[in-house]
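Standup notes
- HV: blocked on the assembly model, inputs below
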Amino acid sequence: MIFSAMGIWNYWVVFILMMIGLFIVIDRKNLLKKIVGLTIFQTSVFLLYITFGKITGGTAPILTGSSLTVYSNPLPHVLILTAIVVGVATTALGLALVVRINSVYGSIEEDDISAQDLIDYHDQNTPIEKTREKYSK
Amino acid sequence: MIDYLLIHFPILIVVFPLMMALIVVLISNNFLSWLVCLITTFITFLISIFLFNQLQDVSIISYALGNWLPPIGIEYIIDHVSIIPIIIISGIGFLATIFAYKIMPTEIDSNSISKTYSLWLLAIAGLLGLVTTGDAFNLFVFLEISSLASVTLVAMGAKKDRQALIAAYNYLIIGAVGATFYVIGVGLLYAITGTLNMNDLTERLADIENNRALIAGFGFMILGIMIKAAIFPLHIWLPRAYAYAPSAVSILLAATATKASIYILARILFSIFSTSEELVNYTLTYIILPLSICAMFAGTIMAIYEKDIKRLLAHSSIAQVGYITLAFSVGTKSSIAAGFIHMANHAMIKGGLFMAITSMGYYIQKRITLDTLSGIGKQMPITFFCFIVCSLSLAGLPLTAGFISKLYLIKASISSEGLWLGFLILFSSALSLVYLWKMIEALWLNSKDNNQPKVKESPILYSSLLVITFLNIYFGLDASFIVDSSFNAADMLIGRR
């Protein structure tokens, strides 16, 4: 029982990471930590794909001439290369947004920000500068 | 030369705006960048019309990217189903670009306008790629191109209201989680079939029965796309993103973004998984149908209690997405056709409403709420007329396009599910009159705010609005074009069963 569970060790790692990442995205109120969680979540998916492609005893798919060599499937690696690029773009955009949010709200805690938004909602006609002054006092 | 180009139209429709986006970002003159963007969207629209004409002779256009034959290479498919969202996206993209000329400078810093147009084209290219591609993983890449571009576009609203940043952030995080769910699903399917081509997936899935990986993969894919399509409990990112985005962006996103995702949902349900009938039917009856009914009522009720007009329209979009998915969940041929009819009509209606509201708010540099716009209708008769026509179309009154889609929807749902469903649809449509009347009352009947500036209508703003209003009336009188192409689409999707 334990050995059969250990045999799929990679999948255990994948799903533990996946749940950790998703939990951080949902639970943390800090905008930066949410991005960390998202990155962990995406990385777990990368691992999942790599695990699909692995064949026990398989090597890198480079033709050597001998017909006995077992190759791992290279396609998941290529797919994940694309997904990594997408992930980097997502993270970069997220971080850029967090920087902007920090400079405008002076905080990256969700509770702070929604409290400020609530006040904005009540006096919508005052421009941003005045609201910001009010908060700096 | 031209013959050579003709063969490559299925890829050009995606790559042309993508490449032009790179050129637009280099142009520093605001007017020139707008002009290039306009020409690009116009040519894209022409290509889509051409592709539509081509489809009258052949039922399917398959394009092998880089001449690598499918299923090994990436395939681009244009058929009766995907041509509907293609025409919606390129058409609305063109109209919204005309409209954007006057609106953009009021809401965005003048030195970032050309960058905004570049992102604008990227978003259009991403959405077009999303609906054209026949490769499940390629779809993910386009999903991310379009969503990253639209997140940045939403964040551009920060000059007017800082909440745009939070809206963009939430859109980004929720969208990225959705896209990642989709990738997990694709990965599981790849593990059991060894292919990513959609047609090939269908064939290979037919041999696999009751596999747990198949069910899990199906669940992940559907869930990921449902987040992107803003289906009821997963809609939370939508109202804020539409409300705080720059107005021109709201028009583009409201009319196109969710449509593309709903199309993908239909593709997954009826095309990729067409062989695992039991699973799909279960999902349709026990998950999508109840959620759609909830969406219809929840969206409408949230809209009734909303004061901010752009947010109100966004809430009503959630309800309208509910109608479309409801049509799909009934699962008969005529109901799926009704879903596509409503998809096209809703793009015209919501595009028109957002345009009308934006041009009314153009002279008032404040948030567009029921109070700040009170009594403005009398000063802008043309815009207000268009607004009324689009509102009536949304409520589904006869002689407008909305009536046609409601008619087909109710007919299809009564004939297969029973009277109760038709009654629920009618009831929620009646409820939508409440918020429409609330807007009309504020804009026309209420007295004018005294510190409101003098308002004059501008032809650049109302020209594209008039076009969209005309379409709303025209398709209400003679809907054969939309109805025929929707029934062709439904034939194509369900035909395999």
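- HV (later): unblocked. The first strand of chain B starts at residue 60 and ends at 64. The two ends of chain B are 41 Å apart (CA to CA).
- Next: hand off to the docking folks.
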